[in-house]
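Reminder: ligand-aware prediction takes two inputs, not one.
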Amino acid sequence: MLTIKDVSVQYRGSEQAALSSVNLSFSKGEFVCILGKSGAGKSTLIRTINGLQPVSEGDVFWNGKPLSANNEEEARKARREMGMIFQHFNLVPRLSVMQNVLTGMFGYRPTFKNLVGWFTTEEIQRAKDVISQVGLSDFSDRRVEHLSGGQKQRVGIARALVQNPKVLLGDEPVASLDPGTSNHIFSLIKQMHDQHNLLTIINVHDVSLAKKFADRIIALKNGSVIFDGIASGFTEKEYMETYGSENYQHV
Ligand code: ADP
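Here is what comes back for the chain with adenosine-5'-diphosphate:
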């Protein structure tokens, strides 16, 4: 479904590659967590998958088709099939829950002109459905700036789902939330993953969340994949290789 082939990313002015010769392949239904120290390349990998980050070498293939920059049409189509949730939610604070979710109809970058009034009854119903699925029906008309962090991320999830994606990507979606809320949000993501039959790929710094929810863990170090396997296979040894023995915490 999604294949990353020999992908390297080198930022301008940077000595070391952010990703070097990464090869990965993902199937529908997998729930994958990406682990790695800060700077390991997790965020670059997620942005490479959704086409926001051009690759220096290699390519990302979506259903067999390359998404490289010279194939903008394919890339745009693929992007519409990928919902994205962010650490800082990327919502428009002064707009309501419903308005924020509706912006997801056009991909994950809010386009201000595309708000209520431009939508069909069906699209509005679809937004209502996903708002209900994330448990926010009673908050539909409330401005996002008046919501808690956990509620904001619920809006983020609903916005990612409203476009009926096949892939759900998350760039540290719980890093700004307290541990209890993080757990709730991860449970919700897993529930949505199952309900919508998605491929889900999420960066997370909390190893215990990855081990609790993921089917598969991928660990990055200095831009390379150093572990790729079932979550239970990520043991003390892999933890120490990924984060350094001085940072080991039993999980
Ligand atoms: P992570 O998400 O694991 O913290 P990133 O993908 O953000 O890692 O970063 C990987 C490497 O690329 C780091 O060395 C980081 O400093 C560098 N990097 C990330 N974004 C940029 C950028 N826009 N310009 C230059 N270097 C960057």
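The helical segments are 42-49, 72-80, 97-103, 121-133, 149-161, 179-196, 207-213, 236-243. The CA atoms of residues 179 and 228 lie 26 Å apart. We will return to this case in the review session.
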